[in-house]
Write a structure and sequence with these properties.
This protein is α+β, with helices and mostly antiparallel strands. The protein folds into two domains: about 30-55 and about 95-165, no CATH class; about 55-95, no CATH class. The chain is built from four helices and six strands. It has helices at about 1-15, 110-125, 140-150, 160-165; strands at about 50-55, 55-70, 70, 80, 85-95, 100-105. The strands form three sheets. A two-stranded antiparallel sheet has the order 1-6. It has a two-stranded antiparallel sheet with strand order 2-5. A two-stranded antiparallel sheet has the order 3-4. The chain is elongated.
């Protein structure tokens, strides 16, 4: 009986040493796309806004264009000269470059304590692997982007909805 107990304790201690990995984003994951505006916000729509430019998506299209049709003998149907083609390549814009706007926590909220809490929240979810510095440094920006991108906001600027989702800012209740 003591061997079984020792084995169970050993397995539990090893499980706690497992590295953290980001949870897979599923269809049930919250989306930030509803927080995105495709027009500049007015002053009445909130105090602090972030902006990001979604790049244009360009597709390269290659086609074979007929230059000269084949020449056949009308009596026998034998090809005297094959058709000639030329390759044409062009680029087409699939979607235009689009500026987007989204609400962000205001600068006075982004204190070292708040950023440390953000770093800890992202670390707990497996997105942040740096030191807890309390600074919005490049590892923190990469973690923010990695967290937000699959949710529909490809930006390293912290969105207000993300801060709420991570439990860093209180959620406003509609009463």
């Amino acid at each position: 009986m003591s061997r079984a107990l020792a084995f169970a304790v050993c397995m539990l201690s090893l499980a706690s040493c497992a590295p953290t990995v980001p949870l897979p984003v599923t269809d049930a994951s919250p989306t930030l796309a509803s927080e995105v505006l495709l027009r500049a916000p007015s002053a009445a729509e909130g105090a602090c806004w972030g902006t990001q430019v979604r790049p244009a998506i360009i597709e390269t299209v290659t086609e074979q264009v007929l230059v000269r049709p084949e020449q056949r003998d009308p009596a026998t149907g034998v090809v005297h000269s094959p058709a000639a083609f030329r390759t044409e390549t062009r680029q087409e814009i699939v979607s235009e470059r689009t500026p987007i706007w989204f609400r962000t926590p205001c600068a006075d909220v982004l204190t070292p304590d708040f950023v440390s809490a953000l770093q800890r929240a992202l670390r707990a979810r497996g997105y942040f692997h740096g030191f807890i510095t309390g600074e919005l440094d490049s590892p923190t920006a990469r973690a923010i982007s990695a967290y937000q991108s699959p949710r529909g906001l490809p930006s390293s600027t912290l969105a207000l909805a993300t801060a709420r989702e991570l439990g860093l800012i209180a959620v406003e209740l509609n009463r």
